[in-house]
Design brief:
CATH architecture: 3-Layer(aba) Sandwich
Largest sheet: 7 strands, parallel
Low-confidence stretches: none
Number of strands: 7
Mean pLDDT: 87
Strand order of the largest sheet: 3-2-1-6-4-7-5
Shape: globular
Order of helices and strands: EHEHEHEEEHEHH
Structural class: alpha/beta
CATH topology: Alpha/beta knot
Strand content: 15-25%
Distance between the termini: 37 Å
């Protein structure tokens, strides 16, 4: 099973570092669409995901046109505060791509308009603008993995009743 995270023009190196770490520990592929608001060798980026960076499957693109040219057959889902559909009500197929936009602007309006049936949102209180980008990515990734029963990840939910009692988690 394959999950892809696409960051379109990320601006904050710490967010991208945290997202890289999430990708590394879950096996998700990371796609970075330029222009980036930082340098890849930025200390803040490396610090946030330093000991995980070598575990990443990461691809860079010159822009969205380059991304779609190189990935024409993807199953794309666009995370945005403007969507009607809640992210957890969607069935995510193998080899899906979860798109996330800039911290300050989100995804381009034209992209959202042209792909409205595939736009999803994370519910929030109405007066709030949005969640932090790295938190949003983690929510999206783990929803997909939950639907797939966490393939290739340690899943403590499969412990037997005896294991739970022996572990004494609740005493």
């Amino acid at each position: 099973m394959e999950i892809n995270i696409v960051l379109v023009e990320p601006q904050i190196p710490q967010n991208t570092g945290n997202i890289a770490r999430t990708c590394a520990v879950t096996g998700a592929r990371l796609h970075l669409v330029k222009p980036l608001g930082f340098s890849i060798d930025d200390k803040k980026l490396k610090h946030a995901g330093l000991d995980y960076w070598h575990h990443l499957d990461i691809t860079y693109y010159e822009g969205l046109e380059d991304f779609f040219k190189r990935n024409p057959e993807g199953k794309f889902f666009y995370f945005t505060t403007k969507a009607r559909r809640v992210y957890s009500k969607v069935r995510y197929p193998d080899k899906c791509y979860l798109f996330f936009g800039r911290e300050d602007k989100g995804l381009p309006e034209k992209l959202l308009f042209n792909n409205e049936p595939y736009c999803v949102r994370i519910p929030m209180k109405g007066a709030m603008r949005s969640l932090n980008l790295s938190n949003s990515v983690a929510i999206g990734v783990y929803e997909v993995l939950r639907q797939w029963d966490f393939p290739e990840l340690i899943n403590y939910g499969k412990l037997t009743q005896y294991d739970w009692e022996k572990a004494n988690f609740f005493n």
